[in-house]
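RETRY 2/3 - previous attempt timed out on the joint model. Re-submitting the same 773-residue input unchanged.
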Amino acid sequence: MYVADSRATRAGSAERAAGPGTQPARRRVAVAPTVLALGTVSLITDVSSEMVTAVLPLYLVAGLGLSPLGFGLLDGVYNGFSALVRLVGGHFADRGGGRHKLVAVFGYGISALCKPLLLLAHTLTPIGLVLAADRTGKGLRTAPRDAMISLSSPPESRGRAFGVHRAMDTAGALLGPFAAFLILRATVDGYDAVFTVSFCVAAVGVLVLVLFVPSKTGTPGAAKPAGHHRPEPAGAPRPTLRAALALLRQRRIRRIAVCALLLGLATVSDSFVYLLLQHRLGVPDRWFALMPVGTAAAFLLLALPLGRLADRIGPWRVFLAGHVALLGAYGLLLSAWHGAALPYLVLVLHGSFYAATDGVLMAAASQSVPEELRSSGLALIQTGQAFARFVCSLAFGAAWTAWGDRTALLAAAVALAVCAASSLRIGPAPKVSA
Amino acid sequence: MTRLRTRLLVLLCAVTVLAIVATTAVLHAAARSDRLDVAKPGGPVVAAGRVTLTDEHRMVFRNMAWGPHRDELTTVPVAAPTGSRTASGVKCLRFYAASGTGVCLQAVHGALQDTYRATILDRSLKEKAHYPVAGIPSRARVSPSGRLATWTVFVGGDSYAGTNFSTRAAILDTRTGELVPSLEQFAIRKDGRPYRAADVNFWGVTFASDDRHFYATLATKGHTYLVRGDLRDRTLTTLRTNVECPSLSPDETRIAYKSRDAGLPADAPWRLHVLDLDTLADHPLAETRSVDDQAVWKDGSTVTYALPGDFGADLYEVPADGSGRPHRVLTAAVSPAYL
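RETRY 2/3 succeeded.
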């Protein structure tokens, strides 16, 4: 164990000393204040962005008389762009050392400024541009934020830190639509009010980030490759893009990336899971919109416990177990059993898949990516995984067309089992401490 | 500690200011209906009145002008569209009517979320039946005889599903109550061969007068097709590509539709065209703006459609043969039907 408690109190932050979290105790450290602050920022920001996302289709169709289909077609492009921007954000956050907060503020700030712009945009083109800017902000901030979470947490409690963060993030995502519908309920065509409130909420999020997240969340210490955390600032050389890509030459990182990629290739996208549930079980149409809420609720409740489990038994095992949960969901969808509990079970398994993989992968990757390249490394793995899932979506759609949904899902399940088994072999050995 | 206190103070002040802004915005939007009880000077005059779906020489539409009758089904004389509007008190997001049957796609306000339904109205706008729909209403049509009704909704507008929409088109026989909840149940023949795909979407149904055949848009693999459907055989046959939101002319020889024209920006790609079904000759209409609507035939030679306007949407007319120029018929209106 190498909780750098002496360093943490010294170099960490005197001003972070808010209450009992001051002394990073051994083992049972509470989550770092930085993580709580970042979690709060994510919660607030997700309330803001999900408010807009929830009412946007209605606004386009009922408010402006447009059809959102054209916009839906553009969305794929934006998402691909966002994945690239994530790499850029990760790289800039690492350059010059400790620029994580700066890049994150920039990313959150862009997204916040997009909200009032929606008040001015009345046709599809400007709305599309505003949403593209919003995605850019989201892409920029993700990697530095995850890097800050990992850098402010000792390795043995990183699972928990990411768990807390993802739970708070998901809580915001669940609250956002609720807030938006309350506003629409209280007003007459209150889309403008939703956008204004969304901006105010996003501004609070940016402010919390600026005020309460220390800008030096662990500074790069190139001289300490063993992963000592929060070392003194050192005049480290600026990481280059080449150095970021060279990360893939390191065995452990390459293995994590390859496994994330492999498993991503066998991860059927959410909408297909919901469609399959509906097709196979005849879930009534009006419940269709609630299925993602079920997944999110399970994610919210399980993120922290599974994060803690990752700290105890190793993130990689939990990451793989998450894919076993997904495999279980596939199995239930394929089974002949049609009990009333089936949709719930599938959604709980689907949510636990996210809880066991989303933050946990970042915790696992953080064990291997050196501090000075943390942002770039995490961005690289996230982008690889997103790309693999995109490819899987395309392939799954084609398989569904060619063979029908059942056979396609069977193929996906077999692929997932094979990828999980090979990940078990080539994945990094369970490693609780460095 | 003082630094922490300073930061908390800054946060508190900012939150206070932002909370005031947010509350003001909500109150402003909440008070809108009171403030706008009086019609805007220069805006359309709307008065409550009796509306039936058999008022000859009138057009019915969803009134989008601010005021107490916003979103209500409203009529004006076809000959004097800028005249006084008569509002019915029935609210719809999308609407269509023919031969005394109306289909009204409505929002039902729930505690946590809106749900939607398709309501069938009789000639006096009384509800005959309603059907829950899975998403946000988009297109609505009634067959010329008034027997069949259809609606298209966007599914997956949910916050977690992102903005990746799919559509579902349903067809109802209002006489028997028989409902086809999704055209995806029908057998597709594409280019002469049976076709299956997970990603098929249908929207924008338009009926022939025999209450058996219809046309619609089929989308799959990034392409859209004009399909001709047969309700008795439960089949759909592709006729040609790049036809969205078809609208069959009263003489059933032509189809007005929105075409995704090459070289136009990806987010405003549509132009109105009219296709001759016998010769497959295609005429771009004189409207040069991107039209995202299912056009309505006013008569055999004119089509009506909506474009975004100051109050959501305005209605325009353009000759159906490619000649002339578009002109605005009504402001603050959408979903027209000629009675």
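The CA atoms of residues 218 and 229 of chain A lie 6 Å apart. Closing ticket.
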